[in-house]
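R.M. (postdoc): so does anyone remember the format we settled on? I'll just put the structure tokens first.
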């Protein structure tokens, strides 16, 4: 039997892209899912599709920048499934632009979603995982969390932060909580649609012509989850074979 079978998994940003692909893959392996995102229509469609395939999933409309909503997500998961085994902090934004564009509102959005959203998720599930003496938190960073690119300073800063948070969680795990940081390169998702600066968007769209399918990251997430409890996969970088940076 797969190590994924019957595990209760929360996925944020589940309405499209990496979150949607991961939900489908984990459901097919027998996980019990709580899906979170802001777009209820997309969540309903995904839950229905999983149910038609024989999987188990429900959803909660959640804005990860609102701590109360994230706390409610965790409570709803406990109410529905009686435990929380895995949190996948997947929700993220990438409105890239050079610093001298002074797009402060976009900087704030990235900090709120990419950093505070991750921390709110951890805060919501960690007490339960401590009580269970087991749990697994998977954070989605980026290749941009390893290297700074022009036009990406704030985004890179948020993804470096996610890596730091993941490592801090590992060091404080007390042998109970597994911590996995996954850093995708160019992956075919809606992430690039949040770029408002035209020059930056053109450069990124050129890079993303080689983008790999979101299921490549879903497979990596499934690999980390399905390891035995004494195996902690801490870090994965996953790029298209043709991506140099």
């Amino acid at each position: 039997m797969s190590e994924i079978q019957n595990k209760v998994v929360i996925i944020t940003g589940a309405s499209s892209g990496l979150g949607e692909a991961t939900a489908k893959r984990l459901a097919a392996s027998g996980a019990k899912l709580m899906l979170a995102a802001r777009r209820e229509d997309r969540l309903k469609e995904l839950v229905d599709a999983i149910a038609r395939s024989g999987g188990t999933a429900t959803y909660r409309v959640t804005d990860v920048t609102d701590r109360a909503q994230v706390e409610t997500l965790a409570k709803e998961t406990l109410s529905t499934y009686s435990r929380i085994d895995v949190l996948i902090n997947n929700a993220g934004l990438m409105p890239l632009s050079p610093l001298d564009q002074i797009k402060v509102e976009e900087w704030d959005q990235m900090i709120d979603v990419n950093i505070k959203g991750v921390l709110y998720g951890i805060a919501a599930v960690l007490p339960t995982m401590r009580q269970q003496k087991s749990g697994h938190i998977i954070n989605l960073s980026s290749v941009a969390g390893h290297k700074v690119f022009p036009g990406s300073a704030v985004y890179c800063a948020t993804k470096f932060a996610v890596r730091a948070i993941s490592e801090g969680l590992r060091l404080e795990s007390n042998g109970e909580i597994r911590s996995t940081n996954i850093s995708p390169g160019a992956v075919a998702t809606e992430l690039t649609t949040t770029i408002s600066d035209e020059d930056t968007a053109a450069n990124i769209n050129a890079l993303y012509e080689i983008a790999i399918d979101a299921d490549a990251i879903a497979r990596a997430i499934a690999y980390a989850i399905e390891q035995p409890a004494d195996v902690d996969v801490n870090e994965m970088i996953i790029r298209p074979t043709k991506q140099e940076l």
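R.M.: ...and that's the designed sequence above, right after the tokens. Also worth knowing: Strands lie at 8-12, 32-37, 56-61, 86-89, 135-140, 177-184, 235-238. The chain has a mean pLDDT of 95.
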